[in-house]
Amino acid sequence: MNQQLTNQRIFPLGIILFEKEQSYLHIFEPKYLQLIKDALNSDYTFAIPYVEDGVLTEVASLVKVKQIVKRYPNGTFDIAIEGLGNYFMDMIHSGDKLYETADISRINTDTISGITLTTLFQMFMEKKENIEMDDERFKLSYIASRLPLNVQERFNFLNTPRVTSKQKFLITQIRFQLFISEIECRMEYNFSLN
Q: Using CA atoms, how far apart are residues 43 and 24, in angstroms rounded to an integer?
């Protein structure tokens, strides 16, 4: 995927999607109806810059329209979208469209995790989903997408500048999840004894 994209359509929202994650949007504002129609007439993509407490941040998710789920008589519609990657917004442009565009640069989350993170993530996934992991699934972005991170934690992960700091962040999150899982197991065992 391109490291930099220019004049990418932007649709600011309070969500962050990682690669291959899916979500649904109800499109009703005129500028975003125009944005989605333009996306459907070209490459189906647009960026969703994360909005935190009403303020536009530089972190964005590049997404692709997968499907128009439903069209309504008033011209609005519901769409299914899928994350393609995460980017920083470099510069915002206003043009002749109702919506704005931005130049965006890819955030490095394709790095393969280190041994500690890989081992912890395998333990986490085996506990949660009873599946074995293949080497393809040890990218930092994939690991982050599988953890129950809230939107603020996703933002913090993506906004962390160094790969080693991103790895430490994920290690802390996984250790916490494994701790919670262990407590849940103990509680379940204690309740069954009573």
A: 18
Rounded CA-CA distance 113/163 in Å is: 9
- As a whole number of angstroms, the distance between CA 170 and CA 145 comes to 11
The SS3 call for residue 183 is helix
DSSP one-letter string for 50-87: EEETTEEEEEEEEEEEEEEEEE-TTS-EEEEEEEEEEE
Residues 157, 106: Cα–Cα separation, whole Å: 14
Kindly tell me the burial class for residue 82, based on how many C-beta atoms sit within 10 Å of its own C-beta (0-12, 13-18, 19 or more).
Answer: middle
Give the model confidence (pLDDT) of 61-115 as tens digits: 999 999 999 999 999 999 999 999 999 999 999 999 999 999 999 998 777 777 7
- Asked whether the CA dihedral 18, 180, 131, 123 is positive or negative, the reply is positive
Which helix (H) or strand (E) element contains residue 184? Answer: helix 163-193
Domains in the chain: ranges and CATH: 4-106 (2.30.130.40), 115-193 (no CATH)
Nearest alpha-carbon partner for 2 in 61, 85, 69:
85
pLDDT surpasses 80 at 165: yes
